[in-house]
Amino acid sequence: MSPIRLLLIQANPRRGAPLDLDVEQRNLQEAIQASRRAVEMAVHVLPAGRIADLPVYLRRCEQHIVHLGCHGDGEGGLHLNAPGDQRGEALGADELA
After folding, report:
1. SS3 40
2. 60 phi and psi, to 5 degrees?
3. Span 1-38, pLDDT tens digits
């Protein structure tokens, strides 16, 4: 049986409120290791995720699970890193579908 593939997308633009993405990633990996299926999990990490990165990683990783570590926009969308990583860029809920 092939491993379950998890894609961890992280975005924490410098001008936004800081997120503890390192802690979140560690907690996620500890939970996977503690599970019975730990040897069957493959975790791929996209740090400083940008909107343009999503289609590339979603196709390349052929993931089963996507975990997002980023801020939301309050309307169902996400804030990812903008080009240059200094600010955030909104990805609307309608664009996520």
Report:
1. helix
2. -65, -45
3. 788 889 999 999 887 789 999 999 999 999 888 887 65
Cβ atoms 19, 12 nearer than 8 A: yes
Instruction: Say whether 84 sits in a helix, a strand or coil.
Output: coil
pTM score of the predicted model? 0.83
Helices (H), the chain: 21-34, 53-61, 93-96
Q: Determine how many CB atoms are found less than 10 A away from the CB of residue 70.
A: 20
Is the pLDDT confidence value at 63 over 60? yes
Give SS3 for 69: strand
- Within 10 A of 54 (CB to CB), how many other CB atoms are there? 19
Residue 8's SS3 state is strand
